């Protein structure tokens, strides 16, 4: 069942997909070929037919998105196998990334390789993201994407403050997620960096105009932010014990005695 049922102002996934195809210069047939679908199946989605789970899984890599993000944008329930492995690992996910962005590029790559090399453990329980208001709209979409990076409200507050110029209280992320605080161009740009999504595309999909953020077209994220998004995504596969181990290693790799973090590190 669609999680967006009853959501006001949702343009429909077909409209979003049409924009993505136009932005990428892809034809219906080209998307169909990339996704292993027929052109008629793609046209049906563009015409407003709710995409099936199988079609959405195929479309996501063909348009360069994580499938979980497209499920959220489409207002569909995220399949269990796309969720973070262990909700308890949210305690360590922000720490891993916050320490990692204080390391050199080579050290960040080393940490990423370690995360990817760890054995895949069994899922301890079904992942349950904190429920958001059904009318939350674009704010709910982006906060839900961050929830599926295994971030709590506090994790979002900590990580955004270190990786981007956004500095908000933990409670504010819950307010954004429930649609009681509107997204701003600044928020969209900074959320996009941590999600590893193109800021212009996220703005278009959420209906936010970026003209208030100088320059009108945001520059590419700093290398630290790019690596932060990848590390955060890959850490989703870790158990709590594994995440704790990686976090401790990232801390030790910093080689200093401070437990503090620089704010808005990229570009400083």
Describe the protein in words.
The chain is mostly helical. The chain folds into 2 domains: about 15-80, 434 Repressor (Amino-terminal Domain), CATH 1.10.260.40; about 85-268, no CATH class. It has helices spanning about 15-25, 30-35, 40-45, 55-60, 65-75, 95-100, 105-115, 140-145, 155-165, 170-175, 185-195, 200-205, 225-235, 240-255. The longest helix has 15 residues, at about 240-255. It is globular. It starts with 12 loop residues before the first helix and ends in a 14-residue tail after the last helix.
Quick recap:
It is built from 14 helices and no strands. The protein is mainly α and 268 residues long. The chain has 2 domains: 13-80, 434 Repressor (Amino-terminal Domain); 83-268, no CATH class.
Order of helices and strands: HHHHHHHHHHHHHH
Q: Sheet with the most strands?
A: none
Task: Kindly report the oligomeric state of this protein.
Answer: single chain
How much helix, percentage-wise, in residues? 40-55%
Distance between the termini: 45 Å
| Radius of gyration using CA atoms only | 18 Å
Q: Characterize the overall form.
A: globular
Alpha plus pi helix count: 14
Report the β-strand fraction as a percent range: under 5%
Poorly predicted spans: 1-8
Throw out a few tags for this protein.
268 residues; 434 Repressor (Amino-terminal Domain); 14 helices; disordered N terminus
List the helices and strands and how they pair.
Blueprint: H1 13-24, H2 28-35, H3 39-46, H4 53-62, H5 67-73, H6 93-100, H7 105-117, H8 138-147, H9 153-163, H10 170-177, H11 185-195, H12 199-206, H13 223-234, H14 240-254
